[in-house]
Amino acid sequence: MDSRDYERSVALMCPTCGGTAFAHDPEIDGPLRCVGCDRELTREELRAENGEIISAALAELTNDALSGMHKDMREALRSAFKDFKHARFE
Question: What is the pTM of this model?
Fold first, then answer.
C-alpha cells in the first residue's frame, strides 16, 4: 500500500462568501483574511465553520484506505497460498 494514494487536500471555504483563497502574514500566527470579502477568521474558526467538508473528506479517505487494504490483503493471501489447490479466495 502506497501512502501517496491516500493524500488529500481539502479546500476550506469562507463562511461569508464561499471563497477558498485566504491571505495571512507568515511571520505571525495571526488571523486568516478571506481574499474575496476581507473577513478575518482564526484557523480554529475556519476549521469549525468547515467541519462538514472536513468530515466528508475524512469519510471518503477512510473508505478508500479500507478498500485499498482489503485489496492488498486479498492479493497477499492469494500469493501466499497460490500453490495450495484447495485454497480459494473470493
Answer: 0.68
- Return the C-alpha cell found at 57: 473528506
Does 70 have pLDDT greater than 80? yes
- Pair 60, 37: CB distance under 8 Å: no
Residue 21 has pLDDT above 90, yes or no: yes
> What's residue 3's pLDDT?
67
Number of domains forming the structure of the chain: 2
The reply to whether 55 and 90 lie within a common domain is: yes
Cell numbers describing residue 33: 483574511
Q: Which three cell numbers stand for residue 61?
A: 479517505
Structural domain span for residue 17: 10-49
In the chain, the amino acid numbered 32 is L
Identify the sign of the CA torsion 28, 31, 34, 39. Answer: negative
> Which amino acid, residue 59?
A
- Beta carbons within 10 angstroms of residue 14's beta carbon: 22
